Task: structure prediction
Amino acid sequence: MKKIIASNFKTNHTRKSTKEFIVNVNSFLNKNNIDNEVIIFPTATALDEFVTVSNLSVGAQNAYYVKNGSFTGEIGTEQLDEFGIKTILIGHSERRHNIGESQKDITLKYNYYKSLGYKIVYCVGEPLEVKEQGISQTLEYVFNQFDGIDLEYDNVIIAYEPVWAIGTGLTPSIEDIETIHKKLKKKLQKPLLYGGSVKPTNLAEILAIPNVDGTLIGTSSWNEEDFKSMITTTNKA
Ligand code: PEP
Result:
């Protein structure tokens, strides 16, 4: 299976710079005949009707589990449909831990977007205090994040992202990633990404770990040249 690469813009880039980024990445994929699956999650304000090659999709970092209604500050599928968006990120640790989304909220969101056939990138991962308790506690914590989540769903990609590695420059050891991915793959027969401080200098070794089907990248994907170089690395893996 070809490796996957996904970029999470978080709260970065403007509408204008997002458009430039996506147009340029799209022509890069086209020119170089790169057929890896590439996903970009821009901010909601930068969503648009992007014309892209079939292996590049643009997704929402978040949306509520409604078509429309009275949910101040949220967007629903009416707004996503306007731009033909059919991909969504669910369960990211910044939403779980900073914004306070519960497993119940996440499950409602997952089921709603699943019922509409969206491609879902579903994130799980443990905070530092859990990691420090050891591998069995880490696995127990991560497995609990699948409560209510249908892992038989055809259109789901899982991202294992240790919370303490996100945006910190810290990454787990190769052995730790290997152990956790192996255990996760036993539970789910789905594409499994690693995320957390992936960068041009560590991407190749992470992609070489068994059961790593690709990466979800925040910080180091916001620079277009770095992202393109990481696409090239992904293509060679
Ligand atoms: C992320 O936001 O999913 C992520 C992995 O961020 P970073 O690459 O900055 O750690």
User: Anything to note?
Assistant: The chain has one domain: 4-236. The first strand starts at residue 4 and ends at 8. Residues 8, 10, 161, 166-167, 195-198, 216-219 surround phosphoenolpyruvate (CB under 6 Å).
